[in-house]
Design a protein that fits this description.
The protein has about 290 residues and is mostly helical. The protein has ten helices and five strands, in the order αααααββαβααββαα.
């Protein structure tokens, strides 16, 4: 071969190697175009739903926390009442109460709420130098204190004392009431609640049959309770106020008026009564 052609061939190969070749990629196939596009989510709607869900969660959390707080308070009050009825009347600190009621997992905020608001303002809890005890309606130590209370109510005309109040304030109340025997009298109200009265044996005396007949012969059926109470007050005698539940009188329904009222229409042009003619049946005949 001609040496000149060989040199040109070598020069061409060197130039081809020195210049980089760019390869074009094939166009994307139709299968790629069928890929699902992700829908665009409206930022405002997503942010609004997020805020509403957060507010709903906040309300649920606040209700749950308030319910848990008052549940702890009720548990503490019931525990203090039970230990008082069992004879444990000494006061306890809040840490001791939480330990005995197994409420050690409450937060510092809830503990502060119990110390500053809940227990201090509770009518059944008494606070004394940072300690807490149960506060019954009648603080009775023993059966003698109960008998003195009933005797005082009898002398002042206050009536009896609810058995629930006695059991709340007297430790081991059932044992004390049983020991008093016939010194007290039980009366059951219409609502099934029992009331204790002092049985004053000095008032137990015999009455002659003649006086009993005179007593029973006095008619009081035509006199209502208000007139009897008014008469007793004039004689200087006080009557015991009723402590039982009041009877609710049924509401009387108004009777509907039978028959409808006739509607009255206002008439006009009364001054033309003799001039106007009625054409409802057609044109009247000529007179």
């Amino acid at each position: 071969m001609d040496p000149a052609l060989l040199r040109e061939r070598e020069l061409f190969q060197k130039r081809a190697l020195s210049t980089p070749a760019v390869e074009k990629r094939p166009a994307a196939s139709d299968s790629g175009s069928h890929k699902k596009k992700k829908p665009k989510v409206d930022k405002e709607s997503s942010s609004g739903s997020k805020n509403s869900s957060e507010s709903a969660n906040g309300n649920l959390n606040s209700k749950a926390s308030s319910g848990y707080k008052f549940g702890c308070l009720a548990k503490i009050v019931n525990y203090m009442k039970t230990r008082h009825q069992n004879g444990d009347t000494h006061f306890l600190t809040l840490d001791e109460i939480l330990d005995e009621t197994k409420l050690l997992d409450i937060s510092l905020k809830q503990k502060q709420w119990l110390m500053t608001e809940a227990l201090v303002n509770n009518p059944k809890i008494e606070v004394r130098d940072g300690t807490y005890g149960f506060k019954p309606k009648y603080n009775l130590k023993d059966k003698k204190a109960l008998l003195r209370l009933l005797d005082k109510h009898d002398q002042l005309g206050l009536g009896g004392v609810l058995l629930d109040d006695v059991e709340e304030g007297l430790p081991n109340a059932a044992k004390a009431i049983k020991a008093l025997g016939d010194q007290i009298v039980f009366v059951t109200r219409p609502d099934k609640k029992k009331i204790l009265f002092y049985n004053d044996k000095h008032c137990q005396f015999g009455v002659d049959e003649e006086f009993q007949k005179l007593w029973r012969s006095v008619p009081v059926d035509s006199i209502d309770e208000e007139k009897i109470e008014e008469y007793l007050k004039k004689q200087g005698i006080s009557s015991m106020q009723e402590t039982g539940p009041k009877k609710v009188m049924p509401v009387q329904k108004r009777k509907k008026q039978s028959g409808q009222r006739k509607r009255q229409f206002k008439t006009h042009n009364n001054h033309l009564a003799g001039v106007l003619e009625d054409y409802s049946d057609g044109v009247p005949a000529k007179k």
